[in-house]
Write a structure and sequence with these properties.
The protein contains 8 helices and 6 strands; from the N terminus they run ααααααααββββββ. With 343 residues, the chain is of the alpha+beta class. Strand 2 and strand 3 form a beta hairpin. Helix 2 packs antiparallel against helix 4 and helix 6 crosses helix 7.
Length: 343
């Protein structure tokens, strides 16, 4: 009697069917995910990009601070190493002088046993035996005391140089980490911008260009009469850089970050400002918004990571963010903290 059982499906056919079903499910899930996560609007992308730029600027000021620390440490290490080298030369001269005294003493009747000990293969051990100094002549005792003091100074300077070198290594590592953080933020901003269509990106670029043109042509800033001579000179220098691009870590003369612009401009007026915004916030007299005069510094955000010039009539002049040039902007566009009057 013939069997009516359905023949077994070949193994290969079953495998293909499973793979086909899996692929179909993956497509369905991808479609559902795409439907669940709609493409961000042009406005949303701009808001996210602006926030990333703000975060990058905060990281930039921290990077600038670490870079300044590195520069100071390098100078301190160089000075200490030079001092140690000079001190070692002085110590060698002192030892040679004592050796000359011993030679003269030998010629006139032998070398004192204590001096022989000092001139032995391990003379440094002698310096710990201060009780023997009373066996030497006054001149020899004074020479030995100077050598002992010089050795202590050199040991201290070598220890200090070693500590500074460790600090320098840590600071260089910190610099690398902060630089990566900035680059990651800017890279993320670029990726977000790339999710926009070419037309959307063109519109955003046009908006930025219009904002820069409108800012650079602004004339209603009020009078500079209340500004000090140096503040007026610094503001004038900053005005000459309107349109210069924002570049993180830049201090001019062709590109700037926010504190790079203010420090460069005040330097043109003969005033040296600290490099970063947080230090510039402490560089003068803190004043309220109602006391601001053209040329005063204006500090923004709770962590004080942004600084610009007060330009008059509620406007500031600053290097705002990547993709924008030095320009005027309303003081109300960022969270105001306080002003700083440079004496």
């Amino acid at each position: 009697m013939a069997s009516h059982r359905r023949p077994k499906q070949p193994r290969r056919t079953r495998r293909v069917s499973v793979l086909t079903a899996t692929a179909a499910a993956a497509v369905a899930l991808t479609t559902q995910a795409a439907q669940a996560e709609p493409k961000a609007s042009e406005k949303e992308v701009k808001e996210k990009v602006d926030k990333l730029y703000e975060d990058a600027e905060g990281a930039t000021e921290k990077y600038n601070g670490a870079k300044e620390k590195q520069k100071k440490l390098e100078e301190q290490v160089d000075n200490l190493q030079d001092s140690v080298a000079r001190g070692q030369d002085d110590l060698n001269d002192m030892r040679n002088g004592l050796g000359s005294m011993a030679t003269a003493q030998y010629r006139t009747g032998g070398v004192d046993p204590s001096v022989q000990l000092f001139l032995s293969s391990d003379p440094d051990s002698y310096l710990d035996k201060a009780s023997t100094l009373d066996q030497l002549s006054t001149k020899q005792a004074e020479a030995l005391k100077k050598i002992q003091g010089k050795q202590r100074d050199l040991a201290q300077q070598r220890k200090e140089a070693s500590d500074k070198l460790e600090d320098l290594a840590d600071t260089r590592k910190e610099l690398g980490e902060k630089k990566k953080k900035i680059q990651d933020k800017l890279s993320e901003a670029r990726k977000l911008l790339n999710t926009l269509t070419a037309d959307e990106r063109a519109r955003l670029a046009a908006q930025q260009a219009r904002a820069d043109r409108a800012a650079s042509s602004r004339v209603d800033l009020g009078s500079d009469a209340s500004a000090s001579q140096r503040a007026a000179a610094a503001l004038s220098a900053a005005k000459s850089k309107i349109g210069a691009p924002y570049v993180w870590g830049a201090t001019g003369p062709s590109s700037f970050d926010c504190s790079g612009l203010t420090s460069w401009a005040y330097n043109q007026a003969g005033v040296s400002l600290p490099r970063i915004s947080q230090d510039q916030a402490k560089a003068g007299t803190q004043i309220g918004r109602g006391q601001l005069a053209p040329g005063d510094l204006v500090i923004f955000y709770g962590d004080q990571h942004h600084v610009g010039f007060y330009a008059g009539n509620g406007q500031i002049l600053h290097a705002p963010k990547p993709g924008a040039g030095v320009r005027y902007e309303s003081i109300n566009n960022m969270p105001f903290q306080f002003g700083v009057r440079i004496g």
